[in-house]
Amino acid sequence: MEAKNRMTREEIHDFGVQIVYEEMMKAGYEILGADPSPAVTPQIVARKDGQLCFVIVRTDVYPNRGKLADDREFLYNLEHAERNNALCYFAGVGICNAAATDAGDEAAMGVPEREGGFYVDFDGLKVMTTLGRAGAANGNGQPG
C-alpha cells in the first residue's frame, strides 16, 4: 500500500463527521452547521423537535473507535452546550479498510486509503451528561 494513498488524520476525522452528519439527516435532525475540523467543537450543530443539539465527533481507525481525550474535554463540551441551552451528544466513529478486512490482512485494516472502501463502526449518538445533571433532568434530584 502506497503512503500517498493513505488518508491523513484530518481526512479520517472529516470522514467520521460526514458519516454522523448523514445519519443525523436520516433521523430527522435539521443541521444548522457542520465543521469537520478536529480543532473546532462541536463539529455539528443541529436542531430536532425544537431542541438545539451540539454533537462532538471523534473518529479513529481499526481496532479503535473515536473517543474524547479526557474528562476535561468531556466537561468543557458539556458546559459549553449547557451555556447555549443545547443538548450535548458524543459520536464515536471507527473506520476499517474494507479491502484489507476482506483479504484477512489485519495489519492493513487500520490503514484507510483514499478512494477505498470502508467498514464503519458507529452505533449512534450518546447523550453526554453527569449523574448529578441526569437527576436534575428527571425532576426528582435522583440520578436516572
How would you describe this protein?
33% of the residues lie in helices and 26% in strands. The chain has 144 residues and is of the alpha+beta class. It has a single domain, classed as Trna Endonuclease, Chain: A, domain 1, CATH 3.40.1350.10. Strands 1, 2, 3, 4, 5 and 6 form a 6-stranded mixed β-sheet that branches. The chain starts with 8 loop residues before the first helix and ends in a 7-residue tail after the last helix.
> What is the radius of gyration?
17 Å
- What's the order of the H and E elements? HEEEHEHHEEH
Distance between the termini: 49 Å
Shape: elongated
CATH architecture: 3-Layer(aba) Sandwich
Note the beta-strand portion: 25-35%
CATH topology name, in short, is Trna Endonuclease, Chain: A, domain 1
Question: What are the salient characteristics of this protein?
Answer:
elongated; 144 residues; 6 strands; Trna Endonuclease, Chain: A, domain 1
Summarize the structure.
With 144 residues, the chain is α+β, with helices and mostly antiparallel strands.
Task: Give me the secondary-structure topology.
Blueprint: H1 9-26, E1 30-34, E2 44-48, E3 51-61, H2 71-83, E4 87-97, H3 98-103, H4 106-109, E5 118-121, E6 126-127, H5 131-137
Parallel strand pairs: 3-4
Antiparallel strand pairs: 1-2, 2-3, 4-5, 4-6
